[in-house]
Amino acid sequence: MFDANDALERIRSTIGHDGTFVPLHEPRFVGREVDYVTECIETGWVSSVGAFVDRFEEDLARTFEMKHAVAVVNGTAALHLALILAGVTRDDEVLVPALTFIASANAIAYCGAVPHFCDSEEATLGLDAAALATHLEDIAELREGNAVNRETGRTIRAVIPMHCFGHPCEMDALVAVCTRWNIAIIEDAAEAVGSRKNGRPIGHHGRMATLSFNGNKIMTTGGGGAILTNDPELAKRAKYLSTTAKRPHPYEFHHDEVGYNYRLPNINAALGVAQLETLPDFLSAKRALAKRYQTAFADFAGGKIFTDQSDVESNYWLVALILEEGDVATRDTFLKLSNDAGVMTRPIWTLMQRLPMYTHCPRMPLPVAESLEARIINVPSSVRHGVEAT
Ligand SMILES: *Cc1c(COP(=O)(O)O)cnc(C)c1O
Known about the structure:
38% of the residues lie in helices and 16% in strands. By secondary structure, it is an alpha/beta fold. It is globular. The model has no long low-confidence stretch (mean pLDDT 96). Pyridoxal-5'-phosphate (PLP) binds next to helix 4 and helix 5. Pyridoxal-5'-phosphate binds at residues 74-76, 100-101, 103-104, 162, 188, 190-191, 212, 214, 225.
C-alpha cells in the first residue's frame, strides 16, 4: 500500500525541509558565471558570435568525448536541426518514445514529418528496442534500402531515443535494430549531460546527439542547446544552417537555402563555460542526493526510488519515485499533498499520443509507457540538496 504521508515525510527528511517552498530543480551559480558574463558586456560581445561560443563548443566536445559540438538556442532547435541533417523531410515517419518531453514530437512536426510512438522499458525508462524490433517486423518492409511502414506507406527515416531523467537507455540493442532497417539515430541527451555508461559519456551511438541547457536542466545557459557529432560534414552543416545558411563573405549577404537563426548568443555561452567548470561537483552532489533518497525509501512499501544499472553512472537529473502499483488517483493524491506542503513534486509527462495534435499518429502497443505514466513522481532534485547532504 502507498502511504502518501509516509512518502512525504521521507522526502522532507532527505532534503531537510524547513517548511519553506522547495522547487523541483533550481539552477546553481557558484563558479565564474558573473566574471564571464561581465566580460561579454564589457567587450560588447553579447550576441551570436564571440569567443565564449567557440570555447563552449570546444569544452562540450571534450566533455562528451566527441569530435564536434555546435551550440544552438535551445534543445528543441537542436532536435529540429538534427532531424533536417538526418534527412527527415515531409511525410516521413520518425520513431520516438510515447513517454518523452514534447520537444521531440514537435521537432518532428516542424519537418512536416509524423511521430511514430514507441514503448519504453521499466529497467531504463527508455525506448524498448526489443519491442521496437518486433513491431517493425510486423509493420515495415525494406524498399530500395529504406524502411517503409506498410500501413501508412511512409518512410521511417529516424528514431529519437531519449535518456530519461539522465538514465542512459539501451543503445546497443537499438543500434542493431536501426542498422537492420537503415534508420538514423538521433540521441535526445537533453537530460543526460554528465551521464556515463560503460565508463563513457552518453551521446555517441547515433549520427548526432542533442543537448539542452534550459534553466531546469543539470547545467544551464539560461536557454540553450547543442548538437554533438563525430561527423565533420554534419557539424559544418549544422553550424551553417543555424547561421541563416549564410555563405562566408567579408561584406556581402548571400544565403543559398532556407536557414535558421538558431545560433547560441555569446552571453549564454559564457554561462555555459562557467557551468561546465562546475559540472563535476554538480554530478557528485546529484549522485549523493539520489543515494540518500534510495536509503530513505529502502524499506518503503509503496514504491522505490529509480536506481541505475551497474554499468551506468547516471547524472540523476531528476530523482524519480516509482510507485509499486499505479493508478492516477493515488499519484494525484500524493502530488496534491506534497505541493500543498511546499514540496514541489511532478508527474511524468502525459503520453504523446494523448495530446490533441498527436492522437492520429501511428504507434506500437504502449503497455509499459502507460503503466509508468501513472506511477512516476519526480521529487526535489536540486544540486543544493546533494551538497547539503555531503
Ligand atoms: C529539456 C528537454 C528538451 C529540450 O528542451 P529546450 O527547452 O528546448 O532546451 C528536449 N528533450 C527532453 C527530453 C528534454 O527534457
